[in-house]
Amino acid sequence: MMMADSSCAGDVLRLADIEIAPLLRLFATQQLSFMAVEDAAEIPGSHWGDDEAGLIGDKIFARADTPVHSLLHEACHYFLMDKERRLKLHTDAGGTAVEENAVCYLQICLASGITGVGSLRMMQDMDAWGYSFRLGSARLWFEQDADDAIALLKQRGLWQQYRLEDCQPRISADG
After folding, report:
1. Fewest C-beta in 10 Å: which of 59, 93, 116, 165?
2. How far apart are CA 67 and CA 41, in angstroms?
3. Cα angle value 96/112/117 (rounded, 5°)
4. For residue 79, what pLDDT band results from cuts at 50, 70 and 90?
5. Is the pTM of this model over 0.85?
6. Which one, of 133, 129, 128, lies nearest residue 146 by Cα?
7. Could you tell me whether strands 59-62 and 54-56 are parallel, antiparallel, or unpaired per DSSP bridges?
């Protein structure tokens, strides 16, 4: 999975487009603190720059124009990390290709619980932003090629914690 430059992005959901409370509850499950950044200000800890979410230690940073997929993606990186990596975290989440796949799988599943987002919209936004999967789309990858991601999520306990066995691409109640 690779990420493209955000300049090719289509119309994706932004933080300002959704209710933030479900995200805050999700972040709290891993003791991740949300830090709002003023409009047009540089986002601390942003690996990609521009409007992309940032990570420093146990804090995730975003502006109103930050894409929801970016915020959720960075949060999922944090969720997959052990305590030692979290303590050293600053800007670059690092990890292996398999971990990156697990992050993508987790962000798709967790999106189904976010009002106004849903897993189908998350996959559409990932495709629009330029995430690149072997099978050509986030949905095809999710449905047919994510065994390594599932195995890692099970190994790290997140499969059980978030009850991902029932995760299927679907739209949230409001999205």
Report:
1. 165
2. 15
3. 100
4. very high
5. yes
6. 133
7. antiparallel
pLDDT at 14: 97
What does the buried/exposed string (b/e) look like for 125-164 if buried means 16 or more CB atoms within 10 Å of the residue's CB?
A: bbbbbebebeeeebbebbeeebeebbebbeebebbeebeb
pLDDT level of residue 167 (50, 70, 90 thresholds): confident
Every domain of the chain and the residues it spans? 6-166
| Average pLDDT over the chain, rounded to an integer | 89
Nearest to 107 by CA among 63, 53, 68, 144: 68
Q: Tokens 């971990």 correspond to what residue?
A: 99
pLDDT of residue 173: 43
> What's the CA gap between 109 and 141, in Å, rounded?
13
DSSP string, 18-78: S-SHHHHHHHHTTTPEEEE--TTS--TTBSS-TT--EEETTEEEE-TTSBHHHHHHHHHHH
Nearest to residue 47, comparing CAs of 58, 28, 68, 62? 62
Sheet holding 33-36, edge to edge: 33-36, 59-62, 54-56
Residue with tokens 């987002």: 117
13 SS3 class: coil
Phi and psi for 60 in degrees, rounded to 5?
-120, 135
**The one-letter amino acid at 53:** A
Residue with tokens 């720059």: 49
